[in-house]
Design brief:
Layout lengths: L8 E13 L9 E9 L23 E3 L16 H11 L5 E4 L6 H8 L3 E5 L3 H14 L4 E3 L4 E3 L1
Parallel strand pairs: 1-3, 4-5
Antiparallel strand pairs: 1-2, 5-7, 6-7
Helix pairs in contact: 1-2
């Protein structure tokens, strides 16, 4: 599954959402957790982070209990909580870094990136979600730059 990137997988974090969303069909487990794969190009085949990680020894666990977000205005069914995005960006990126979200949805990663002083690029195929993301960003920052041609949002 990971193929050529396997040597750069540093660790796996389990995001515990607090409760599982009901399964979509019979005989399927409710999904209470998701996996966050953390990669780094530097120092392959080691769990030690060398460049971007900012946490001290013994201060960051690999199990994060952060309650899931729920739909606002029926805009998107799988919104990540801002607290989850903030924890990832705070621990694994620096100010002025560029954060790319290939499945931007309604812009949660874009909003948190701006709050934490990161630059942002996002792609989304659903125009309705892009409209929500632009509206969210306009509320606080009045800065979105959207390309209709590529469905990319850059900040």
């Amino acid at each position: 599954m990971i193929g050529e990137f396997s040597e750069n997988l540093k660790d796996i974090i389990v995001w515990d959402k607090g409760n599982g969303q009901p399964a979509m069909q019979k005989q399927v487990l409710n999904r209470r957790s998701e996996l966050i794969l953390v990669f780094e190009k530097d120092y392959p085949i080691s769990r030690q982070f060398r460049k971007k990680a900012k946490f001290e020894r013994g201060t960051l666990d690999d199990l994060w209990l952060i309650k899931r977000s729920y739909k606002k205005n029926n805009s998107h069914g799988a919104v990540f909580p801002e607290a989850l995005v903030a924890k990832i960006l705070h621990n694994f990126s620096n100010e002025e870094d560029i954060v790319y979200d290939p499945f931007m949805g309604t812009g949660t990663t874009a909003v948190v990136s701006k709050q934490l002083g990161r630059k942002f690029i996002g792609s989304e195929i659903k125009k309705d979600y892009i409209d929500v993301a632009i509206q969210r960003l306009n509320q606080d920052y009045n800065l979105p730059i959207f390309s209709e041609k590529t469905n990319n949002l850059s900040l």
